[in-house]
Amino acid sequence: MKKLFPLFALALAASPAPAAETIVVMPGDTLVKIAQQALGDGERWEEICARNRKLLARKCDLILPGMVLSLPKSAKAASADGAPDDNEASEVVAAPIPAGLVDLVQSATPIVPDGFSAASLPEGGYGLAGHVARPTAGKQTGAIAFLVPEAIETELGGHAIRVTLVGKASPKNGPFQVAYSTNDVGTSGWKKLRFDRETSSASFTYDVKPVKDGKGDYFGIQPDPANSGQALDIKAIVIEIVD
Fold it and tell me: Is the link from the previous residue into 96 a cis peptide, with omega within 30 of 0?
């Protein structure tokens, strides 16, 4: 039997289908408030709770800032005239944000070492750029890093996680590198990713070892490992438990 964690009622299954719309929980939000703002009817909060029953473990009051909730499907349908070349940068970040335990873009401010830059984007998220040679994938990582909230770090220990980034690369859709570092019991090492041209997302999985001393988990990003002048616009970095 799977364990339901009392603090966060973690997601124990894959995220909803890509067609679903999502919303990030902000401080002070309730399901009634979200239903009123997103659906125009506060009484539809039960629909949101039901749609996220695995994430919330049927406890509708257990929503926390940074959680990404799936909303009932809207009537809007996306369309495209054609698929871009794999090496072409997407003009817009149109992919929905997957449901999950936390969105690091909403819950943390990037840590930016020398050689890198991070700027807030008008539409939300961060523009990341820069390069250093052979940054470490351990501890805080030697690249741009996002600190995982302490309580969530504890809950992730001992589980397989999926980290999904939503965004785009420019001027071309080149590879970038990411790493999950526990700063305590190991690191994923640098993983090479490229945004999918249709979903504007990229993801990887990692088996996080049980927490030992709890020194802080970090998610590192190298936006331009080839030092080609590439930059990333990151809309979301969502972590979910998948085991």
Answer: no
For residue range 146-171, list pLDDT tens digits in order: 999 887 888 888 999 999 999 999 99
- State residue 106 phi and psi, 5-degree precision: -85, -25
Domain presence at residue 26:
no
In a domain, 79, yes or no: no
* Of 2 and 85, more confident: 85
Per DSSP, the three-state class of 35 is helix
**Omega within 30 of 0 (cis) for the link into 98:** no
Measured distance between the N- and C-terminal CA atoms of the chain, rounded to whole angstroms: 12
Q: Does the CA dihedral 151-239-184-223 come out positive or negative?
A: negative
- Name the nearest CA neighbour of 22 among 10, 43, 39: 39
pLDDT of 1 over the 60 cut: no
- Sort residue 15 into left (φ over 0), alpha (ψ -120 to 50) or beta: beta
Write the pLDDT tens digit of every residue in 66-123: 778 888 875 233 333 444 444 544 343 445 666 677 889 988 899 999 999 999 999 8
Q: 240 near 15, Cβ under 8 Å? A: yes
* CA-closest candidate to residue 236, choices 91, 56, 113, 108: 108
Question: Does 49 reside within a domain?
Answer: no
In a domain, residue 198? The reply is yes
